[in-house]
Design a protein that fits this description.
The two termini are 31 Å apart. The strands form two sheets. A six-stranded antiparallel beta sheet has the order 4-3-8-7-6-5. A two-stranded parallel sheet has the order 1-2. Strand 7 and strand 8 form a beta hairpin. The protein is of the alpha+beta class. The radius of gyration is 17 Å and the shape is globular.
């Protein structure tokens, strides 16, 4: 835009809309790490490295719109027919988990159970989630830092996403992208935390 950088446009958008209302995707070259950091700090949700493919761009946009739909659906769980909403969440192509404000599991769909591949915990014991579900930093033997998990950050009131997680099941590893967002009630207290899980195996092959 004339007389405005992309960073300034992102900042202006964030003054009016939160990251979970209007997603911003940034395009960057692989060697522009500093620019990437500035863009994320300015309010970008995600980024793609050049050259980009149309399919990947559309897939990322669809994913961010799905997260927005999930946030709205979680808020309606307390207000509408739960059976109908559960059917909607079960039809989602991503794993979905909803925790209440105390960290207790309120809902998890079948896709999330398939991806996590372990029995559910009744409470979000923050220091044990990564060990229980065998969540590792991608390409390492290190368990993922529990406090960096988006679902844990959502319980603290922060929207976040990560794509450097692997869930390891016996001899199989599944790379995941995970989003987490808090759901606030009318008094601006955290009512739910919602997480979405997507298998990004095919994306990493490109």
């Amino acid at each position: 835009m004339p007389k405005m950088t992309g960073y300034e446009v992102a900042q202006k958008l964030r003054e009016r809309w939160h990251a979970d209302e209007v997603p911003i995707l940034m395009l960057t070259a692989k060697d522009q790490v500093a620019d990437l950091v500035i863009g994320l700090e300015a309010g970008a949700n995600d980024y793609l490295t050049k050259p980009i493919s149309k399919d990947e761009l559309l897939a990322r946009l669809r994913t961010h719109m799905l997260v927005k739909e999930l946030q709205a659906a979680a808020l309606r769980l307390a207000k509408e027919n739960e059976d109908r909403l559960r059917q909607f969440l079960e039809a989602m192509p991503v794993g979905v988990q909803v925790l209440d404000a105390k960290g207790q599991s309120y809902y998890i769909n079948q896709r999330a159970q398939q991806l996590l591949g372990n029995s559910l915990v009744d409470e979000a014991i923050q220091g044990q989630l990564t060990e229980h579900y065998q969540l590792y930093q991608t390409g390492t033997s290190e368990l993922y830092a529990p406090h960096e998990l988006p679902i844990v950050r959502a319980l603290q009131g922060e929207s976040a996403s990560v794509d450097d997680v692997e869930v390891r099941q016996l001899e199989k590893s599944i790379p995941l992208e995970i989003w987490g967002t808090p759901i606030f009630d009318e008094q601006n207290n955290i009512h739910y935390a919602i997480a979405a899980f997507a298998d990004i195996t095919e994306r990493l092959k490109r």
